[in-house]
Amino acid sequence: MERLDLDLSRPPPLPGTVEECHRVIEALWRALGEFQQIQARVEELEEQLALGSDNSSQPPSQDSPKKRAERKGKRPTGRKKGAQVGHPRHERALVPAEAVDEVRHYFPHGRCECGGSVAVRGFRPHQVFDLPEIRYRVVEHRVYEGRCGCCGQKHQGRLPDEVPRGQMGPGLVAWIGLMTGRYHLSLREVEALLEEQWGLRFSLGAISQSQIPLQAWLGPVYNQIGEAVRKALIAHADETRPYRGRSIYWLWALTTDQMAYFLTHYSRGKGAAGELLGDFQGILVTDRHGAYNDHPQDSHQYCWAHLIRNLERIAGRKGQAGEDGERLLRAARLTVHCGKLWQQSHYPSDRYRRRLERLKALFRRELEQAAQRHGDNKTGRSCRKLLDDFPRFWTFPDHPGVPMTNNTAERALRPYVIWRKTSFFSQSHRGDCFRPMILSLVETCKRLKIGVYQTLRTICAQGMAEGEVTFRLPLPEPQPLPVARP
Asked: Is 0.70 surpassed by the pTM of this model?
């Protein structure tokens, strides 16, 4: 590219001929094109620097210090820290007398200072909770053998079916599963805690091997959860990236308010989404990931929180794109606010429904104008993609009871993300297959308010004694959705 050598300290000399004028004009046009390319690149880099958890899929832990300061910049309320005056009291209820392990009595002196006798009329209970000194329990099973006095044939006793063939009983195997699947401890931390709390020493290999039978015993309950979730009327789906190590599997989640089903798959495409959903025919709530788009459009709800995050990115751009993004962002936030008020009214309010229809028309009009105004640039392409996805944002008015966000699935994936960050996680194919099973049981028990440890212990006891697990979770039956009023 030809460049002009101009001395900016003095005016440039005027071209003398027509050919020189054309050469200068062409060079200026080329310089202008180069400047526009540089300007577009600068804007792109500035936009990348401004990315954060509020306008992209980046987690809050990876926000820049500036973004974190902006996120924490809340207005002070002027109130003191801690409990506020007039808040409801939270007190521990007294344990019933029949559940108390030990009772100690303390009586007053039998005679008053004035010389009179003191009659006992009642007592004030003071209960102290403490942890007992714990120790592991060892049961030695002695298998005797003998020999026939006539023919000399050997005879040997046999262990009952309910006696484990290994060195770990159902309580210990369930406890190891609880520490890893519920509290996200690594195997080394489980090994250290076993020795510290119980005085038991097991190798890392033995602790890891205890998950092999547990994985087989969890199979029937895991399949029960998967079948029940796929029969639900509303379900949320999401996925998260694999661990940055030897594991190559993505974790997929299909959840409801009462159940959570997880699946590992090497892909993030439509094949994996189809395996997760199976024969699911209900209303699906997801983010804008295209792998779920084989689900029927009229029963597919996109997450408005993800939409607002995308619009925040457009609104952060300079010029007309930022102005259009601000208008779209304002319309989206008004829609979410109105939708929440409509849900809080339990859906009979015609006023909120008419307002939603007006906001829907406004949002489409703003998208069409922005797409036409920006043509084939980045903002125009984003607006046209939103127009293509537009029906999937408006399923909730036709099916009351459908949430506007995908928070249910994202909350279900959160323990997995924490587990992945705080331990070595999975280093084998077996571990990658064990993770979704234990997570499905743990998250479902938490949502049903069922004790995870007792459930695991029951499953392990049945698996060791009978070889087949007949235990099933009390999963709820699907409830019909409210009918939308015309």
From this structure: yes
